[in-house]
Design goal:
Helix content is 49%, strand content 9%. With 427 residues, the protein is of the alpha/beta class.
Length: 427
Amino acid sequence: MTPAPRPVSVPGTTAHPVLEEEVVDYTRPRDGLPEVSDTPAALAAATAALASGTGPVAVDAERASGFRYGQDAYLVQLRRAGAGTVLVDPVSCGQTHELAAALDGPEWILHAADQDLPCLADLGLRPARLFDTELAARLLGREHVGLGAVVEETLGLRLAKDHAAADWSTRPLPHTWLIYAALDVEHLIDLRDALAAELEAAGKAEWAAQEFEYERTRPPRPAKVDPWRKTPRAGRAVRSPRSLAVLRELWTAREDVARELDRTPSKVLSHQALVAAAVARPTSRRKMQALREFSSRQARQHQELWWQAIDRALQMDESELPAVHAPLGEGELPQPRSWARRHAEAATALEEVRSAVRERAEVLRLPQELLLSPEVQRRLAWQIGEQEADGGVPDVSVRALSEILAGLGARPWQVEQSAQALSDALA
């Protein structure tokens, strides 16, 4: 059998990526495909191997987004020097506390860690240290930051990416899917080393360390207020309080069914059906069934529940109907698009803040949202605008802005790199 290709001897960089004609296909794991650890005994053996390995641990997880209700992990991939690649089936492997203990200490390497850390934490798996290869690529100003693209441009290897949107809750998992999953961690350690060297050369290693730690320790995002209002295509089409009530009641009923069936909500009843019913407000089962969006087999399976939800909304007292405009959550700011009409000073400040951040980010070869998050930009502008609206003169010195940014959660490197530019723009 022909040996699997190796990474290029000199890694590509942001300025000098591996040329496309030099990239070679990497289609199978170098050491062969390991057996899936899908029993307590197999997990114990895999845990022992990982514990006896050395260096950082490459980590990835596969979910069933678009198929199942939640964001549970259905496969966890791990790789460490001395242990090779380990594939863990968290559905059937039993308790993972011993695996968590073995992984508590070494640096974890993930690509787009914010996507996988929550489902790994649900298994009790949390890193003590983190290196995110996607975040590293963004800090380096890479144009393409997907795992496949970063591996190609840096290591000269083209990975199979055929099963990214697969239903990973499928059992047994097909052989080709497992190959794809194993390849996702096969070269993360090499990739980490190459990106770390480039970050050091670019003077961004400390920036990256702060971002990785922020990502590792960031608390879960708070629950959204009125999540049903985010139904795709509802914002422009559903305007009246009664129609919004239909949307809310149908959305809630769909969530209940989806949770019980462990299916993604859109596969229980389409988003289009929710919007169509909210717009049409059918006054009978027959009229609901006549809507094209309710003619599918999946819609008919629970049609009585859908009608009950619609009827409940139609019978509501006016006082029970939702407001046309979404209420603000605790501490939430109004949407910036409304500032020009109602908060002119904040709107002006926001334009100045955004312009300063954009220009400074271009100099640093960073995405502007990495230099300063949109949320921090908005809150800074709002605070300045409110002071001006009250007749005050905001202190926009570098020192004052540095204190404000730090209080808003900006990391030290972000404060250092943006405060002067913001002070100049706002003066």
